[in-house]
Each structure stands twice: as C-alpha cells, then as structure tokens.
Specification:
mainly beta; Lipocalin; ten-stranded antiparallel β-barrel
Length: 132
C-alpha cells in the first residue's frame, strides 16, 4: 500500500523554441508513488496531476479548459484539450525523460496536423521532502 506524502514541488518550464524559462508551480504537492498532484502558482484553482510510469508519462491539467498529454517512450502519444468549444487532439513526441527521488523531467513536442512542432518544451519538477 502506498501512502500519500505531502512534499514541496517546484515546476520549471523551459520553452525551447522561445528560449524562455517560467516557474509554473512552487508549493505543496501530494506524492503517491508514481503520481504527483499540485496547483498552479498563479492560479491555485487549477490542479495538475502527473503520472510518471515506466511505459508512459501522463500530464493532466484539471480546470475549465482541461488537457491530458500522454507521452510514450517508443512511439507518438497524444495531447487532448477539452474546452467548451470541443476537443482538440494532437500528436506528441517524447524526446527525453528522467526520474529520481528529487527530480522528474520530461522534454517533449506537441505536433500540428502537418507534423510541425507547435510546442517544444522541457518540464522539470524539483521534489523536496520525499522520504524513500
């Protein structure tokens, strides 16, 4: 049985295309094995869930406009955005990933219908207070 731990998380987004760095989250998070849950720094009503498993990484944004990005290590995944106007789905490509007890990282692209990258970013979660 896994226990939920309250930890500190800092999420930094590195926009590779624009060469911009943004801190998206910096606060309390819940860690339950492969699952991390936290709120956005600038909008605490928006919750994120990260599921970091061996065969897939899932990034979920839970809000009025929600999204789910599924990153697969050996083939294209999907990014789905659900809004009042409908659902938009795009392909994803996982470029690099790593995970240890203090740092989770993914680098990925979201592709348009022509296969061009519309998003090219690296996300780094720094975890503090994790007990092995």
């Amino acid at each position: 049985m896994l226990w939920v731990m309250e930890i500190h998380v800092k999420l930094t987004q590195f926009d590779i295309t624009r060469k911009e760095i943004t801190v998206l989250a910096d606060g309390i998070a819940d860690l339950n094995g492969d699952r991390l849950s936290y709120t956005e720094k600038e909008n605490p009503s928006i919750r994120h869930e990260i599921i970091f498993e061996e065969n897939q990484i899932v990034l979920k944004r839970l809000a009025d406009i929600s999204s789910e990005t599924c990153l697969l290590p050996d083939r294209k995944g999907t990014a789905s955005v659900n809004s009042p106007f409908g659902v938009m789905e795009l392909d994803t490509v996982l470029k690099r990933w790593s995970r240890d007890s203090e740092r989770w990282m993914v680098e990925y692209q979201i592709l348009d219908d022509s296969g061009n990258a519309v998003t090219n970013q690296q996300l780094v979660w720094e975890l503090k207070g994790v007990k092995e």
